[in-house]
Every structure is written in structure tokens, then in C-alpha cells.
Amino acid sequence: MRMKRPIVYPYIPNSVPETRSEMLDTTGVKDVEELYAEIPKKLRFKRSLKLPKPLLSEYELKTHVHGILSKNKSCEEVLNFLGAGCYQHHVPSVVDTILSRGEFLTAYYGTNYSDMGRFQVMFEYVSMLTDLVGMEVAGFPMYDGSSSAGTALRMCARITGRSEVLLPETVSPLRMKVIENYCRNSEVKRITRVSCHPDTGLIDLNDVKGRLTPNTAGVYIENPSYLGMIETQGNEIAGLTHENGSLFAVGVNPMSLGVLAPPGDYGADIVSGDTQPLGVHMNYGGGTCGFVAVRDVEEHIAELPPLMTSIADLEEGDGFGFNVFAWAERLSYAARENAKEYTGTATALWSTANAVYMALMGPQGMKEIGETILQKSHYAKKLISEIPGLKTPFPSAHFNEFVVSFDETGKTVSQINAALLKRRIFGGKDLSEEFPHLGQSALYCVSEIHTVKDLKKLAKSLKEVIP
Amino acid sequence: MKKKVGLIVNPIAGMGGKVGLKGTDGAEILKKAILIGAEPEAPRRALQALERLAGLRDELHVFTCPGEMGEDALTPVGFEHTAIGSITPGATTAENTECAAREIVASGAELLLFVGGDGTARDIHNAIGDQIPVLGIPAGVKMHSAVFGTTPGNAGQLALLFLKGKTVGTREAEVMDIDEDAFRDQRLSARLYGYLQVPFERKLVQSVKAGAVGHEDTAVRGIALDVISNMEPDSIYIIGPGTTTREVMRILALPNSLLGVDVVLNKALVANDVNEGELLRIIEGKPARIVVTIIGGQGYLFGRGNQQISDRVIEGVGKDNIIVIATKSKLLALHGEPMLVDTGNERTNEILSGYVSVTTGVKEKLVYRVSG
Amino acid sequence: MTEEIKLRNYHAQVWDEPLLMELSVKGQRGILVPEAEKEVKAAVGDAEDLIPANMRRAQPPDLPEVAQPQVLRHYTRLSQMTMGNDVSNDIGVGTCTMKYSPKVNEQLCATSQMADLHPYQDESTVQGILEIMHKTRDFLREISGMDEISFQPTSGGQAVYTASSIVRAYHEANGEGLKRDQVITTMFSHPVDASCPATAGYEVVTIMPDKDGYPDMEALKAALSERTAALFITNPEDIGLYNPRIDEFVERVHAVGGLCFTDQANANGVLGKARAGDAGFDMCHFNLHKTFSSPHGCMGPGCGALAVKKHLAKFLPVPAVTRDGKNYGLDYDLPHSTGKVRDFYGTAQVVLRVYAWIMSLGAKGLNEVAEIAVLNNNYLEKLLLAIPGISESYGEGRVRLDQIRYSWEKLTADTGVTTEDVERRMTDFGVQAYWTSHHPYAIPQPLTPEPSESNAKEDIDYWAAVMGQISKEAYAEPEKVKSAPHRGITTAVDESAALLHEKCMFTYKKYKRVKEGKE
After folding, report:
1. A29/B contact by beta carbon, under 8 A
2. Given C204, C207, C438, which is nearest B364 (Cβ)?
3. Which tens digit of pLDDT belongs to each residue from C140-160?
4. pTM attached to this predicted model
């Protein structure tokens, strides 16, 4: 009978029996069991974990997982018109290359002296992002666009000492779920919705006026809004907000800011959003990369939760380095004593992707991609609106997304999308449950990756599935 | 441009301890100490601290006193220095200390180091108050003041970091002194003299996983805000002395006695600097609460610097109505030792012992041990 | 250890690489993007005209203009100036559980069937990823001893925050939401165990360790009351001691009607050895980017998988991943859910890696992970305690699990060399700076190494040899350590600038203005 040698795991070098023995000797124990002596017997897990038989060879593992993943149909195989907060854009090859650099992929805690490279990347990301959105200061990236909006609102409350916030009714219900959860039992005690004009989808200024109170900490809008419209009344809203002593927060899609005015230009105090469109693959929603940016005002910076990196001189010589976790003690202001939220691991790797992306695109690239997207999405809207039975109810200018109504077809968006799927198309996001007053509507998103052929195919397919 | 630092050495500090005497205030005691064979401790302590500053030697200019009050300690370590004034060797006095301190401030020094005990701290406080940061290199036997480094080496280390501009701020720390005569009559009585500005090391290591670390001032303010926001209407609040408790009075915009006990009701002042008798009268038949913090470097909650809040007052208010406040850094500076109470009444001490919930910030508490 | 360990004459890569903005040359392009086709342009006109006049960007964004090879070089160089786990020994980075992130998992994540999935795609087109999420859920249920899992939180912190939200929802459902306003935690638990409940509106009560370093049971008793909503505790704590009375802690909290959550950031040593569920906890979480091998990415993205017992499952964020026979789906119909903590479903690609990692190891493999992690740590302990100036905090004579918090207190008292000095000197030998301690610094001059199971004996020997060398230097020539690093990327940075807002420069624009004397 052959003695079965224990398995040596490639990821566990000391699983070699001889090494294990040697180390046990040095440690002075006979069996690893002795090292668990501090855990009382009654708390010990006595049986084996019920897990599948392992796939020890890399080949078998890869084949197995590929087998499961092949049940997915990606947006490379299917023509995709979904947006609604996650966007398909071309990810430049240089971005993928840099992101696969093992140094960036596997770093975590480090100092300027060992890890200056990644802190320089972070500094460059913050510098470029703040320029793009028209603000002056930001920190490490946060989680996603919705939780960033939640933070922006809580910051408004902390800075002003007030506890109410206003949000437009066009903010998506799923985003509201995140914001409401985050604001529960916080400095924000009340969230009030502001109405939008039913025909344009733009914010009703009179309603804003009517709902501002002495206890309003902040007014938050999205530009473009969730339903795609470009909000044109930024200046007016800023004016009303500031007159009331409140702060003005704007949520953006950074991809639009090569062509659209950044909120910093129309009076925003805080800008939040998600930089996933800037060089990050969708990853089934795992590519989100939130941010919150403010102006260079001490009281505002003091309320930012994330870690922040500052460039600094060297003590000797001309060079520069980074103070990795700068201004850790943000100075005392009225609301500073309240919980400054929390921070930690978030989405830093994606900010590296964003930095490389913005570096490659430059001002011209961001402008050109914005123009391409505008033209293609308006073209798609035009084609769709010309299909009998379909309507594009909002005449307002939009960036990459617009609403399509299927009410006149008698079919549900669900049915339409199922039929489109058979033609290898992901139709726009179903809005019928989120915004019932829009009936059977869907949110269609167009990107620079859509060719005119793609758009014509969409139009043709819609025509086919309507009757 | 060299950095200017001051150094004052009390040559007889610490001599009593080794030979069983408490302190060396007063020429009589000193004579006794020398007779029994007490050796000067101060020079050795000074050296331990100065060694830590060796790396900065070329950037420092030290203002000090002649001979055994400073110069003698500096020469062996080669620090560039200037000796101020004159002394009578073997018969140095508190006045020497006070003059030197004033001169050192006038010279533009950014830090004053001294080797000594509570007595020397008291003398320096008398002379210069909180005009410049002061740090004590411990050498006396009795150190109730909170102005000392934990060891001479650590004091030197702290001075080094402070001079290099690294992660060190200053905060007010209590200067205490024991009434010598009372002590030798078997009675313990410590007085809160005042405050000195003392460097302390803020551990600025941002917790990578949890967000911004609070500044000491911010923490103090937060604590005070928490106390105020929880104040019950129509309840007397006895506010003990201390920098943390003082913030309560400051935020309420009420005059406060720096070193004494004040009384507040419905956020208005009832009385300043009251004694035990006045307190007992004020709380008679009324709901009352006591707000106290640790005073001095030994971690006393009751019995050092706030004896007006006596056992009878505590009994009248009730243990559950005592609100203890302190910053986390002050609690951590106790290095795991319990907070102490010495009301003079064993039963009261017993009642106060156990665990208490200390307010360390807005909606933030730390459960800490109290020992009688 | 009989042979002398040769320390590397490492030198950090010093490219003296300018900031990207200084590489900008007007007109250079890093990439070109598609233009709208002729017929599109003909149909809709100029892009500018499609934007209302007052919303047109007046000035192009002030981004640098750099050609493609130059961008590639710049960032590649910066990567060479970063000491990731792929290149360096990071045994020192304790509490972070640095371990090997298998490259095969990176390849799987890069496939289009993961990277190019949109979260709102029809469920029939994402059965693969849903299956993986559901199966990994089953794995973690087994590993934790809990009943339901959510992968939505992106980090440990977000998981702890979600747990705080669930605590609130639970007590509100019982009509005790207002009454129960306190959460208890311990000094050596992870700081998020305090800051997340605080973020969720709770008053946080911290209990100190007893003289042996365990959370003080008497202090817990004093802290418990009808105001107690929950206990949030890390076990084993950062100092590496498993609390043998943890079940008693849980019982006492339950007795007053509170819930119990355990932060399993330090789970690496107990996989398959002890389960949170068995100790009575209602909830726990795992850092999938620590214990379960997903790479750290310079601080994310990660995943804080939250595991709960049956009675709390209804409060988990929406949507839940469900299975009906062979079909997987997303269920939003959870009326008691606390809502959502972030957009979409979490970091699905991280879950994919975890699935693959667990499948490559199996039950025996996970046991091996835990055992070797603990063996490595105890082996390192022997080596380190032989070094002059170092000591352990608490736990005299007790066996530790996956990490230990040591102290250089004696070294500092003897030589004046501090833990920050040692941290700067060690990178001269090609090892990543160590993690000192979480705030607050209850243990003086701390360091917290964690030699996870991906470290070979040689790596551990080397790391200990580096510590030994630095100790030697501290006693013989302390200035050498104090003025370190000597072979780092830069010489000393002006740290005083980090303390004050006025001296902080968070962007290039600000930096330039300061340099030009305009500020």
C-alpha cells in the first residue's frame, strides 16, 4: 500500500511536508493543532468544510470556470443599449496594460519611500478629475455614484449645520435606496423631492423656490439627469440655493464633461459621480468608482471622508514627494465632531484606470468623444422617433441617453426587450416600474462604440418587434 | 538660523526620594538629605534627555543657567549654549528658576526644558505662565503635574520631534503641587496651580481603514458639546476643574474659574470657584450632576485638585450622576492603569471604584476602570 | 536558522519622473476616438448645436496632452516605483492579509464574459456570473456558519456599515429603535467597528483590554444596558489573540436583547477551524480582498461579504441572488430590506476570483491556508522575539493566530530609534514598509506583521533578518536608521506640510500656484 503524500499547494509554499516539519520544530510544537490551543474545544469546528472537490490543476480550474462564464453573453457579443449608471465605452489598450501591472494590482499599504509611484498616480487622477468637473480638491475615490451622492448630502448638512436636503424627482429609485439608507439617522433628517416639468423633464424652479426653507442644507441635482436630459438652469438653481444659505451639489457623468459645462462653472459647491465610463470595464456593475470633489474651502475640505494625498517638497533638494495621508486631522469646525463617516478600501485601482484614460484622451479627446456621442445619440433618437408607434417624449437636449415610449404599441418594454434579445440586442432599461407615470418607457443609451450600422440595426429591429 | 531652546536644571530635584524623604523644598530638608548621603539625580536625568537631542546638536542654541543649574549638563554633550544670570552654587533658589525662565522667554526660545519635579514646574509657571511650550524631564520624587515626559529619554525624544516640527502639538497640562507641610503631617492635599503649554505627540497615523483622526482640540470640543447636548433641565451641574471641563463653560459662554469648581443650572452660571460648604448648600434637595475629568499626571479623578467635590458632595449627588469626561489620548497616557480616586473617605472611594463610562467625544464613550 | 541570511542591496527604482502635466506638449494625442459617420452628421448637424448655449463647455478641460508611448512609459515607470505584493515581501503589512492573488484568476476576470457584462442585462444572459455568485454564497455560508450572504458591500467598512443598518432595522421592527442607541466595541477591534456604527447614528462605547489583552469582561458587563443595540467586535483582535470567552460575550449581549456582529478581517488563521456562526454571532463579514485572495488594487476594489443568520436575512440589501432549479435570478422583492448600500450588486469580478480560489483549494486546502498562516506567524514570532529591543504586547505564554502586534518600546527607550524610523529603513532591504497599528496607538512603538500562507519560510527568515539588522543598527549607529531611507525612492519628505490645511497641495494647479509664489 502506497503512503499518500499530502498535497503541496502552489499558493502555499510551506505546505511541503519537510518545510512544515522544520518550522514546527523551530516553533517548538509537534502539531499545528497545538497552535489552536487558545480556541476552546466547544468553539472548534470539528468536521470538514462541505465544499466541492477542488480542481487542483490550473488547467482544470480554468476550464471549469470558463465553462460557467460561457453561459454569459457579453456586450461584445450582443448589441447593447443599456446605460442607467453603467456605461459601455471603449477601454484603451494602454489602460488595460497599465492595470495589469502587478505592482499596481497588488499594492495596498505603502509609504512615499516605497510606493511613490502609485501616490503620484493618485495625485494625477485627482488633479485631472477636479479640472474635468470644475472643482479644486478631491480625495481617494469612493464606492459609486449613489453612495457618493449620499456623502455629498451629508457633507452639506455638516457644513451648514442644517438637516434638510432637496433632490429632483428624476433621481432613480434605486439611487434613492442608497441615499436613503446612507442618510438614515445621520445629519440629514429629511429628504424632500422637487418636481420636474412633465414635458421637458427639467427641474421646476418654482418648486425649488417653494421648497427651500431655512433648514435646507443642500440642493442636489444630476446633470445629465437619470432620464438623460441636460439641465440648463444650473445657474438659477445655484442662485436660489445660495441665497437660501444652502449648498449646491451636482452629480455628473464625467464622460460628458468634454463638451458640457462642468458644474464648477455654474455655481456648484460639491460635485459627485462615478468615473467608471473613463476607462473601466463594466464588470457587471463592479466597475463603479465614485468621487466627491469640492472647492478649495477649508470648511468644505474638512468634511471630506476619504483619505487624501498631498504633494510636498523634500526636506532637502528640489524634488517632490507625497504626504500619503495628508491633513489627517481636519481642523475643528462646527460639525466636525460628528461622525465623519468612514473610509478605507474602496475603488483605488479604477482611479488608476481613470488617470491613464484622461492622460490618453487629453482635452481634445474628451471633446471629440463627447461630440461623437452627442451626434450618435441624437441620430438614434431621430431614427427611433420616426418609427410609427414609438415616441421620444422629451424634446430636451440630452447627452448619451434618452427616453423612448412604447405606450402606443400596446406592448410592454419587457416584451419588446425579449424580442430584441432574440435579435441579439439589449434594449434600453425598462423604466415602467421606476417611473410609472412614464408608462411603458425605456432608457436608451448610445456610446461612441455604436456605428451607424448598429443604430440602423436597432431601428430596423424595433420596427420588426413592434407589431 | 539656529533653533533656540531653554534648559533649567534644579540640581537638588529628586534627592529626597532615594533616601526616603519626600521632596527637597526648603533648605532644611535639603540639609537633611545631604547628611544622609543623597546624591544629585538631576545631572544624570538631564544627560539622558539631552542624548536624544544629539542629532540636532548643530542646529540648536541652548539658553541655560550657569553651573549646576544647566551649563554643567550641556558641556559634556557639546551643545552650543549661553549661560544667563548668576547663581550661588549649592544654594540655588526658586528665584533663580523664575528669573531664568523669564530670560529664556525673552531670548526667543521656542521650547523650555527643565529637569525637576512639581516644585520646579510651579516656579516656572509662576514666572512665565503659558507663554512658550515647556516640557519637564522627570527627576523629582513627586510628579503630580502632567507636564513631564514619562522618562527622561522619552522627554528628550518628544523634544526632538517637537523641534523637528514632526507630529507634535501642544496642549495645556496641569501644574500641581502638594502642600508640603500638610504632607509631613500625614495629610494629603494637592493643589491645582495652573497650566503650562506642553508638547505632546499626536499619533497622526491616519487609520487607513477608518478615516480621519481627531485633533486634541476637536476631541475636547466634541466632549463638551456632548455634555451640553445631554444637560437635563432643572438639574444642577457641578463642573470640576480641568482643560476638558473648561470647554463646557467656554461653549456656554459662562465665566469660569480656571482652577476651581463652578456650578451651572439650565446653562446659566450659579456660582464660580465654590468650596465644599457652598456646594452642599447648592445641591441640597435638588437633582445634581458632577462633571469631572482626570487632573494631573497620576490619573486622579477625585482628590487631587478638586477636593471641594468632597465625599459628602459625591454622596449627595449619587454615583450614577457623575459624568466623567476625558480625551482618548489622556486615557491612553495612563498606560492601562486605572483612574484613581482619593476622597479621604474609604467608603466613598469603594463606591466610586469599578468601571465608569467616560465621554470621549460626541456620542463616543470609553469604559475605563476606576480604583480607590 | 544556521546560515547567515544575505540581505539584498536593494535600491528603489528612482525615475525622478515628472508629473504628467509637465510632460504635456500642445497638440499631442494619446488616442483617437471614432467620429460620427457622414450620414449621422448630415442628419443631426454640429455637435455644438445639440447643446443649449449656456451648457456648452466654454474652455476645454485643462488636461495634459501626451502621446501614447509617453503615457505608457510614464505610468509603467510609476508602476516600477510601487512595491506591490507581486514584487516585494510584504509580510509587514499586517491586518491586511497580503497574499498571492493567482494570475489565473486575473485571466478569468479579463475575459469578455466577465468584464463586458452590463448589470441590467436580461437575467438569461448572465446565468454564468449569477451561478458563480450563488455558489460562492454557498461556500461562504459553510465557512461562516451563517445562513445568508450579501456581496453588495465593496469593502470591509461598507460591510460593517451595512451590518449597522441591519441592526437598526431589526430593533425598529421590534419597536425598540429609539431605545437602543448604543453599540459596544473594543479597543483592538478594527476602527471601522466604531466608525461605521457611528456613521449609522449610534453612540459608540469602547471597552478597554484587561491586563491580559483580552476585551475586559467586567467592562462589558458595565457597558451593557437596555440601550445596547449590538456588539461589534473583531475576533481574533489585531494583536492576534483569540478571545476564548467570545461565546460568553455573545451570550451576555443577547441576554440584554442586543445583536452580535463579528468583524472577520482577521479570519485567515481560523478558516475551517472556528466559525462565527457557531460562536453565536448573528452577523459577520469577510474581506474578500484579504482572506480570499482578491488583489488589493492599491486600496480597492474589494468586497466585504456580509453573512447573516436567518432571522436577519430579510434586512439584507436588494437584490438578492436567487436560484430556482437551474435558473438563477435577482430578487428585488424584499420588503424589509434596508435598501441598498451602493449601485448595482457589488464587485462581481471579485466574487469570481473568490469562487476560483476556493475551487482550487477545497476544504483541505482552506484548512492548509489557515494552518500554515498560523504556523508562519508562530515561526516568525520565535525569530522576532530573539531580536534585541522588540517585545510582544500582552498574551504572555499564549499562542497567537495569524498576526501579532509587537512593540519596539525597549529599542526606543534604549536608542531613541522609533517605529517610524524602522519603517523607513526596512524598505532599503527590498521589503514593504510594515503596518504599525490602527488608531489609537494603545501599544507604544507598534508593528503588526502578518506572514500569510503565501510566504515561504525563506521570505519569513529574510523579513526577520531585516528586523534583526535594523535593531543592530539602532544600537550601534542609530543615526543611520533615523535618517533612512537611504535607497528609497526619495529622501525625506517635508511631513510638516501634511499637518496643516494651508500647506497641503492636493492638485497640480495648487502646486504650481504655490511654486510660482501666487499663494
Report:
1. no
2. C204
3. 999 999 999 999 999 999 999
4. 0.93
